[in-house]
Amino acid sequence: MPLYWWILTVIWVVGIPVGVFAFVHAALQRADAFTAADKLNKLAWMGITGAAALLLILDMRGPYGIIWIAGLVAALVYIVDVRPKVREVQGRSW
Which band of pLDDT confidence, cut at 50, 70 and 90, is reported for residue 1? Predict the structure, then answer.
């Protein structure tokens, strides 16, 4: 099998836990930390990351589908942009 197939398979397998992690992390944080970090509120981020996790789990096309890619991007935006700010506001390492 070609190398690109293996790379996309790894992205698919890793993408689902990333989406679930983003949702669980958003659910476990204090609501006031999101607004203190000047981000959308907790409910909005739970909706975004929850929808992203569902898209990653349910879209069987995986990285070949634009919907799956949108879910992965949404989860990664939370992890890369929102999570560090929320952690900084709360003074926690998780």
Answer: confident
User: What does each C-alpha distance from 48 to 39, 72, 75 come to in angstroms?
Assistant: 13, 11, 8
The C-alpha atoms of residue 48 and residue 43 are separated, in whole angstroms, by 9
> Nearest Cα to 29, choosing from 94, 80, 74?
94
Tens-place pLDDT, residues 36-55: 999 999 999 999 999 999 99
Q: Environment class of residue 6 by beta-carbon count within 10 Å: exposed (0-12), middle (13-18) or buried (19+)?
A: exposed
pTM over the 0.70 mark: yes
Task: Estimate to the nearest angstrom the gap between the alpha carbon of 44 and the chain centroid.
Answer: 13
